[in-house]
């Protein structure tokens, strides 16, 4: 009798269980594809770990490729909102494309969580958008502080990509903090996304002979730069932010990447929470390696925060409620560490510093806010 | 700006410029015989870079073998482009040819986008490309010396073909007057196919060098390089092979020198190259070795 009751309730639950859709907008092809692919793996794995809400409803993902393009990002988000009726959006990876998705989210009052867009002013006057990563200024400033205090570099040269918000924001924050500490930025040299030849700039930097070079670039440019620099005999220590936190950087830079440091938000060798350990164990089962890429962890956290918010709203599931709950996230023990999201949608979290040794990313230090 | 720095930048400019020059020669030759700006030329360079990558990674061909195969492949693509897309339009207005060329360019880019995705593919050059050579305080990679050297040799070979061989005479005659060439019993289409083959082979060398110097290739890599090479050909005087080489070197050097003299404006180095182009054309409307097309003979 008891058994059949359970069965019946299960059946009823199964029959009445609805499908809750979450839209995922990522660059799966194109120049930034490596980031998107990484994040998608994390989101998919997270979804396979936690998909059933308290009331038995199932969270399903609807994934769309943006090709790393602004227009595609915007139309993908529009399609998810109007056709697929998603309750929340996760995505894009870069700041510029996330802005496009955000516009759609704000217009339609659908909560958006960005896994990796670190642009400083991204969330200004935004009610329906939040993120699980830190913001640029925080990364740039943390690195400036660390370079001056811990590594004793007194002057630096910046090489920034004038065509990306990401690069400009990081460079500004680094310079501000570095100057405030008493360091000196000798020169800021500018490049454009897609540039291949940095030999001219490298020759100029050699003439300046700085202690340190900060390169707030994405991996395709940064890898070319470091390789050409080492080939030109420029051996100055170099650092980037999380734009190089991808295996592609090491593949493209080869042995020139030795000793390169960069800031990141997560280190798979030092999981700090229970969820993190579980996730890594599951990732290993699926992939055969414990090395969870940073963006995979960030993607997973974006999903988990979204899932928890959905869960907190099961009685009356509306995007507005989900959005409210996301903004009330406090000390959530995620895959990439402990995350709090405030009213503005910005996350407070620690920064991890990594170094590349023998073509591997190695944990170097942790910088707390 | 001390002298070692200047020398260093000079080497940088030459290696960049000679790659533009290799592509520019193809532009200029096709223009000479067909009066067509072959906008698919940059994409032929891209196609050959992928061919070389495929040979190296999938077939384990050594670098030089891959380079030769890429050249042959580029020739085939170049001749096929002419046969399929341009030949039926020999009598059509020139603007139709131009549009067709742009169409071919998009076709090749999208085809390779489908085959290889738009994600950059790593291209591993042979180790000697990155050997460091120190000369009087400047250190350069062997690659950046090798590229201008090979370019020089190839251009000399092309000039020899043009001026010392039977086919060269035919090509120059064709550039001079198509009708008369036909009357002389020369098959104009065969000569045009030869020009495409020659230009494409040079583009292949440029493409493989480019990939070796910058370690990664994408389906859209031909666009900007092609545009700059075209600018180089115009700058040198379109229709002139030597002019194309000079133009290529000037564009490469301008980019580098712009960074050297105005480091704050280094992000605008592409603009500098084109501003310089406009500047030259104001004074020499037909380019540096400006050819009067009424009497064109390469």
UniProtKB/TrEMBL annotation, chain B:
Belongs to the binding-protein-dependent transport system permease family. LivHM subfamily. PANTHER family: BRANCHED-CHAIN AMINO ACID TRANSPORT SYSTEM PERMEASE PROTEIN LIVH, HIGH-AFFINITY BRANCHED-CHAIN AMINO ACID TRANSPORT SYSTEM PERMEASE PROTEIN LIVH. The chain crosses the membrane at residues 20-37, 67-85, 97-116, 136-162, 192-217, 229-251, 271-293. One of its GO terms (molecular function) is L-isoleucine transmembrane transporter activity. It is found in: Cell membrane. This is Branched-chain amino acid ABC transporter permease. The lineage of its organism: Bacteria, Pseudomonadati, Campylobacterota, Epsilonproteobacteria, Campylobacterales. GO terms for biological process: D-alanine transmembrane transport; L-alanine transport; L-isoleucine import across plasma membrane. It comes from Campylobacter vulpis. It is a multi-pass membrane protein. The keyword Translocase does not apply. InterPro entries: ABC_transp_permease, BCAA_transport_permease. Keywords: Amino-acid transport, Cell inner membrane, Cell membrane, Membrane, Transmembrane, Transmembrane helix, Transport. It comes from the Bacteria. One of its GO terms (cellular component) is plasma membrane.
